[in-house]
């Protein structure tokens, strides 16, 4: 496989900030990153997606536990973005050095490019992407150095490749991936360093042994979420399990250590939603309480402290949705208020400043969907309007231009299909 070299020192330094959880993941990212192309302008046409696969994924849930299995119609990666329009069309734009846009080229696209029809769900990793079509087919594309596409190879792909059937949920992270099938089986593939796939470490400890095809991890799973070097799943009875790296206590097992945790460990009961950042974690219980734990250096746990938290700690009440990425966090309360906290580099919290916040800070009203990326964030309001903010060096915000400026205020993206 021919690898393209990094030509932008600035981008490489930003990547290192994000890919800090596992050393070899950072090295792999530098190795695989392909030559950046000239930037163009972007005029995004975004819309909420009416279709999802949540109904099929809830059929075995405990009656009193309403697990949130609906995925946002907009997803943000390291420096690329994706959205599903109301008719099920998938569009991608931004960086494309690893083929992560899926349009058949290796060139950046700064206007939305249609990739697929009949799409029900989308998830972006650092430099790879995945989509589930309405018939349950899972497709992946982009960076594949650790087999994270699941196609049995380690070659990058710049067009969608079918991986599995009967898929109802998918989650991607740095260089590993996971999916849930209709029968509740959880599969994972890609880099198994630190045991983050959940398959155990029979080959050795602390080494990247690629798993290029999906491997079954657990039964009766409703939701899965992946962080940089750790993973989490909610079973259909509302039990939360975590596995992988625990350097900052991000597994929530009551301690931090440098040992691998290669198999799922039970953490909490009555959990309805979970999201993982680079090395912190959050979960919502059935009563709407938001808990968080892990690395709190930038205030991303949200409890007014810069110390790592080793067990789930209460952050807020009345929460209906949470999204973590990198070193910042965001949540929506029952009244539609959007709150954000953690690192505010590039203005990714959306409060109009570049100051980090150690506790939740209110950003907007009337919000129904939140999605966070490595250096940006996006929200869909109750009227279907899309707002976006943060870093726009590759045009990934969809503002109609590219620049090196910070964008700390939510900006409306016009929709004209």
Question: What are the defining features of this structure?
Answer:
single chain, mainly beta, 4-stranded antiparallel sheet, 3 helices, 28 strands, 6% helix
Task: Describe the protein's architecture and organization.
This protein is mainly β and 417 residues long. It has a single domain (9-413), classed as Methylamine Dehydrogenase, Chain H. Helix content is 6%, strand content 41%. Strands 1-2-3-4 form a four-stranded antiparallel β-sheet, with no helix packed on it. The radius of gyration is 19 Å and the shape is globular. The protein starts with 8 loop residues before the first helix and ends with a strand. Residues 1-21 and 23-61 have low confidence and may be disordered.
CATH topology: Methylamine Dehydrogenase, Chain H
Amino-to-carboxy terminus distance = 38 Å
Task: Kindly report the spatial arrangement of strands forming the biggest sheet.
Answer: 1-2-3-4
* Basic shape: globular
Q: Assess the beta-strand content as a share of residues.
A: 35-45%
How large is the radius of gyration?
19 Å
Q: How many β strands by DSSP?
A: 28
């Amino acid at each position: 496989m021919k690898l393209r070299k990094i030509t932008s020192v600035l981008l490489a330094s930003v990547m290192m900030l994000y890919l800090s959880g596992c050393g070899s993941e950072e090295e792999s990212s530098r190795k695989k990153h392909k030559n950046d192309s000239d930037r163009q302008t972007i005029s995004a046409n975004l819309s909420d997606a009416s279709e999802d696969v949540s109904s099929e994924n809830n059929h075995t849930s405990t009656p009193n536990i309403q697990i949130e299995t609906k995925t946002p119609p907009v997803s943000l990666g390291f420096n690329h973005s994706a959205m599903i329009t109301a008719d099920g069309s998938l569009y991608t734009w931004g960086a494309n050095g690893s083929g992560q846009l899926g349009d058949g080229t290796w060139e950046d696209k700064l206007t939305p490019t249609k990739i697929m029809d009949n799409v029900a769900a989308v998830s972006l990793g650092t430099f790879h992407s995945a989509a589930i079509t309405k018939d349950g087919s899972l497709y992946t594309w982009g960076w594949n150095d650790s087999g994270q596409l699941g196609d049995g190879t380690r070659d990058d792909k710049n067009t969608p490749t079918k991986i599995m059937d009967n898929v109802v949920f998918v989650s991607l992270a740095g260089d590993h991936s996971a999916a849930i099938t209709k029968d509740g089986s959880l599969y994972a593939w890609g880099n198994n360093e630190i045991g983050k796939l959940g398959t155990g470490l029979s080959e050795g400890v602390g080494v990247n042994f690629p798993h290029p095809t999906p491997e079954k991890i657990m039964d009766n799973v409703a939701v899965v979420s992946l962080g940089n070097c750790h993973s989490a799943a909610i079973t259909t009875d509302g039990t939360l399990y975590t596995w992988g790296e625990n350097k900052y206590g991000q597994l929530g097992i009551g301690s931090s250590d440098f040992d691998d945790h290669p198999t799922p460990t039970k953490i909490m009961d009555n959990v309805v939603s979970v999201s993982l950042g680079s090395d912190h974690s959050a979960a919502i219980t059935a009563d709407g309480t938001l808990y968080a734990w892990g690395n709190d250096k930038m205030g991303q746990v949200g409890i007014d402290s810069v110390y790592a938290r080793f067990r789930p700690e209460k952050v807020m009440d009345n929460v209906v949705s949470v999204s973590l990425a990198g070193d910042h966090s965001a949540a929506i309360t029952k009244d539609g208020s959007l709150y954000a906290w953690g690192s505010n580099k590039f203005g990714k919290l959306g409060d109009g400043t570049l100051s980090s916040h150690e506790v939740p800070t209110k950003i907007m009203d009337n919000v129904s969907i939140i999605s966070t990326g490595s250096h940006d964030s996006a929200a869909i309001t109750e009227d279907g309007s899309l707002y976006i903010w943060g870093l726009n060096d590759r045009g990934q915000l969809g503002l109609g231009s590219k620049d090196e400026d910070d964008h700390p205020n939510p900006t409306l993206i016009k929709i004209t299909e």
